[in-house]
Amino acid sequence: PPHRSLRPLLAADGPLLFGRLLFALGSGSRRVFDVAGQSGRNFDALLGQPVDVAVTESGTVYVFAADDEFLIIHVSNFRPVKRTMDVIEIFEKINKKLPAKLLLIGEGPDTILTRRQIKKKNLVDKVIFLGNQNRVEAVLPCGDLFLIPSEEESFGLAALEALACGVPVIGTSGTGLVEVVDDSHNGFLLDVGDTTSMAQKGIELLEDESKLLKFKKNAAESALKRFSTDKIVTQYETHYEKVLNG
Fold first, then answer.
1. Distance CA 7, CA 224 (A)
2. What is the pLDDT of residues 128-155, one digit of tens each?
3. Residue 93 and which of 74, 81, 102, 242 are 20 to 30 A apart at CA?
């Protein structure tokens, strides 16, 4: 079970297709979701205050963090190479400086170890375990920061998914993340194991509202520009044509 119960606030009427993030930049709300079939519904007004919400497959809207808290996300298969202990270390350092919650998505060999570490550090009330999710795109846009301090990454698909949802990434240099994360533009890349520097970069970004907004916009724009379906499909077609034509 998760470390704390998520609070169901609203039930979406009709079949749920996708949670769609409305980038209401400059409005009173930090993050708002619209639900397919529920166009025009103002969840903020219904809840009485701006909150972080996400839409699950069951159609329930949940609050992950209060409006004055930053939401930090990590998604992985919880294998040792993902260094989830570093995720906890980084979050602990950030949380000492800023009000924040950590959202963990995925399951794997290190899940139990991660839970133990969270309990040992008295962070139980600050961490939410969602387990495996089929639709991370319905949750990622709620985040302010994405942590992926992996020892190795062949490409960094999880990081790209975060960027595409407008979430800046803090990851590791010398890995496949260099293909998707532009250091100091849509995130930061630091040495493996350097949790202090990762936390410091995270704090600096979260404390600077204008910089955070800029990084979020850069994240979404860079993902669309470099990895849009049209662009990537065209590249594949060109490659296959070269192979077939010798």
1. 33
2. 888 888 878 878 888 899 999 999 999 8
3. 81
